[in-house]
UniProtKB/TrEMBL annotation:
Keywords: Cell inner membrane, Cell membrane, Hydrolase, Membrane, Protease, Transmembrane, Transmembrane helix
Lineage: Bacteria, Pseudomonadati, Pseudomonadota, Gammaproteobacteria, Chromatiales
A molecular-function term among this protein's GO annotations: serine-type endopeptidase activity
GO cellular component: membrane
Protein name as catalogued: Rhomboid family intramembrane serine protease
Membrane topology field: Multi-pass membrane protein
InterPro entries: GlpG_N_sf, Peptidase_S54_GlpG_N, Peptidase_S54_rhomboid_dom, Rhomboid-like_sf
Annotated TM spans: 146-165, 172-194, 200-220, 232-252, 258-278
Native source species: Rheinheimera mesophila
Gene Ontology terms describing biological process: proteolysis
Every Peptidase S54 rhomboid domain range: 136-272
Length: 282
């Protein structure tokens, strides 16, 4: 699926989508609020949907759109649940590229592995103290991010990964998403291992890295569309401080969080500088 347009009215986006679906065009709407929605479609239908979009913008109150909305409303009651669920998962899937999907699915599989055989999962994915800071750790410099020690820990991190990594991959591309994730995971795991020990896991370092990346991009390059609210920035920083002051009943990988945040901010700054340099050269 590709994003074709953003609407300042979710009702308008849904009205056009209803009409397109009646024309057998593969479209979906991602609703963020009553005042913000996105129209997505299958690549092979992009040209037809763009044509319909132009017609809609010239006359959004046309009878054909109202008729389509009415037709879509006449779904048999027995089909409502499955249709709604199918549409929800379709929209959810469209909010990220294959790398985001891979991160999500692999984290779920690793958590299942931990439930079946926790010791072998730890032996394979957790950093090994006896190897120290060396290349011999190999993949383990990255894989502690896939270890989660409760369902709530896993769900909390995956929600943020989907919310932040998915749009980033779609807007800046897969290469940026993969590179940023690997850099943040490496540095956050390295600092936590060096300062504390190897007994940690989870994608919180990556989440903080994504927060930091969005924060700087929203500040220095708002045209990229990667922005988070001041409230979320405040929450992120307060949560980081709470962890360092040890005010919670749970143990947190605070140095991984800090390293992830700084790494994400630095990656964003470097990317913005490079983009400006390339623009000047052109």
């Amino acid at each position: 699926m590709i994003k074709l347009a953003e609407f300042a009215s979710s009702a308008a986006a849904l009205s056009l989508a209803d009409y397109c679906k009646n024309q057998q065009l593969d479209v979906s709407v991602v609703v963020h609020s009553a005042q913000k929605a996105e129209l997505w479609c299958a690549p092979e239908h992009a040209e037809q949907v763009m044509a319909e979009l132009e017609r809609f913008l010239s006359d959004p109150d046309a009878q054909r759109y109202q008729a389509a909305a009415w037709d879509r409303a006449q779904v048999p009651a027995s089909d409502l649940g499955s249709a709604s669920l199918s549409g929800y998962w379709q929209q959810l899937w469209a909010q990220g590229g294959w790398f985001t999907h891979l991160v999500w699915l692999s984290a779920l599989l690793v958590y299942g592995w931990q439930q079946l055989d926790p010791w072998s999962a730890l032996a394979a994915l957790q950093l090994q103290p006896q190897l120290g800071v060396s290349p011999q750790q190999g993949w383990r410099w990255f894989t502690p991010g896939w270890l989660h020690f409760s369902a709530s820990h896993l769900i909390f991190n995956l929600i943020w990964v989907w919310y932040l990594l998915g749009p980033l991959e779609l807007k800046l591309g897969r290469f940026v998403a993969i590179s940023l994730s690997l850099i943040v995971l490496l540095l956050s795991n390295l600092l936590q291992f060096v300062v504390v020990d190897a007994n940690f896991g989870g994608m919180s370092g990556l989440v903080y890295g994504l927060f930091g990346f969005y924060w700087i991009c929203g500040w220095l390059k708002p045209s990229w569309g990667l922005q988070i609210s001041h409230g979320l920035v405040g929450f992120m920083l307060i949560w980081l401080l709470i962890g360092f002051f040890d005010l919670l009943w749970i143990s947190m990988a605070n140095w991984a969080h800090l390293a992830g945040l700084v790494a994400g901010m630095l990656c964003a700054a470097v990317l913005v500088i490079l983009s400006k340099a390339l623009t000047v050269q052109r």
